[in-house]
Amino acid sequence: MATGGGEKRAELLRRITEEGGFAFVASAEKAAAGDVRAAEAAREMAWEQLHSAPRDEVGAAWRDAYALACLHVAAPRGAGGGGDDDRRAALRALDMGLIMGGGLLRAELEDAIARVVADRRGGDCEAAAAAGDVERWKEGIAGDGDLADVLKLLPVKSLSRKKIERRSCIPLEAFIRDYFIREAPVILSGCIDHWPARTKWKDIKYLERIAGDRTIPVEVGKNYACTEWKQELITFSQFLERMWSSDSANLTYVAQHPLFDQIKELRGDITVPEYCSAGGGELQSINAWFGPHGTLTPLHHDLHHNLFAQVLGRKYFRLYPASVSVELYPQTETILSNTSQVDLDNFDETEFPKAADLEFMDGILEEDELWSRSFVLLGCGFNFCNYL
């Protein structure tokens, strides 16, 4: 009788059979016995099922089936003794299982990744960051930028109205009393200076070594509301290379992705601030935004309270009260209904006259600062210096 992981897999294959996936089950059984072609065929069948309907309509069984197929594809390539190409292929398959698969076999995917990564480091592989990239990285995170130059990059009227209040690191009780309950934004400094990320992420070779071969989802384009916007799956090394691209149409960034759940080593570089316990509920998610100069998030409304930590670089924020949502012309498409049609970089008063003289608050988040934003506010963010 199957036990543990085998029992999970047997139950999954039974569920897939009930949904008519006989061909997948046949291929998966051959793949489990080491048939590489069958593993690839099973993965392809599961992939087609994932894209046969909108994401929320795809059954959980097929997501788990995709994860199983990824495990089968990776197994022979990730076995000890394989070359770098095999290990990279195994990591890509396993990462795809984490990104696109269900949760049933997540622990198995993570264990398999840990084995492949340990095998790679056992071979004493070094990061492959080019000398030019190392220098550009150092220059980027060291550049403070003159305020006059910064203002040229920001939307009209930036930093001319009410500023978001700044405080040094304060006790949780004061944060709840003075800001959380009042639903007021605040910038807090000196709260994350103990994070290992504050020093480790200044070394591009470290990032290459820890995450270079890992596959991650990225967004490409000015912002997600543009018609040219798209998503891609690339390695972290490829993403770092694109950081220096001068092609605005190819602007690439990581946005709202659970990167720290996927790459555990990076999760060890941060800690959850105690302010996240202010609401008394569970932490909804820990996501990463990692982008180059010019990365922009359009005006939008979030459903959850936010605590944003700026590890490296700077970010400009602008906030409007929820009471003026209608005057900010929400998108009519359901999927973008939390996003404004107003483009602050190219504001057209004739098209959006109600938004012309609305009051707002704004500020610049510096390195080593936290920004707390209540869910009742509309806001946008703009990176004028690199990095998360």
What does this protein look like?
β2, α9 (172-180) and β3 (186-189) form a beta-alpha-beta unit. The chain has 14 helices and 13 strands. The chain is globular. The longest helix is centred in the N-terminal third of the chain and has 19 residues, at 60-78. The chain has 388 residues and is an alpha+beta fold. The termini are far apart. Belongs to the JARID1 histone demethylase family. One of its GO terms (molecular function) is metal ion binding. Its main location: nucleus. It comes from Panicum virgatum.
Order of helices and strands: HHHHHHHHEEHEHHEEHEHHEEEEEEE
Strand order of the largest sheet: 1-11-10-13-8
Task: Note the beta-strand portion.
Answer: 15-25%
Query: How many H/I helical runs?
Result: 14
The gross shape turns out to be globular
Mean pLDDT: 86
Q: Main sheet, how many strands, which sense, barrel?
A: 5 strands, mixed
How does the SSE layout of this entry go?
Elements: H1 5-18, H2 22-32, H3 36-50, H4 60-78, H5 84-100, H6 106-122, H7 131-142, H8 147-153, E1 162-163, E2 166-168, H9 172-180, E3 186-189, H10 197-200, H11 204-211, E4 215-220, E5 230-235, H12 236-242, E6 252-257, H13 259-262, H14 264-267, E7 288-290, E8 296-301, E9 306-310, E10 315-321, E11 361-365, E12 369-373, E13 377-382
Parallel strand pairs: 1-11, 2-3
Antiparallel strand pairs: 3-12, 4-5, 4-6, 6-7, 8-13, 9-12, 10-11, 10-13
Comma- or semicolon-separated keywords:
388 residues, alpha+beta, five-stranded mixed sheet, four-stranded mixed sheet, 13 strands, 38% helix, 16% strand, globular, disordered C terminus, JmjC_dom, metal-binding, Cupin_8, ARM_KDM8_N, iron
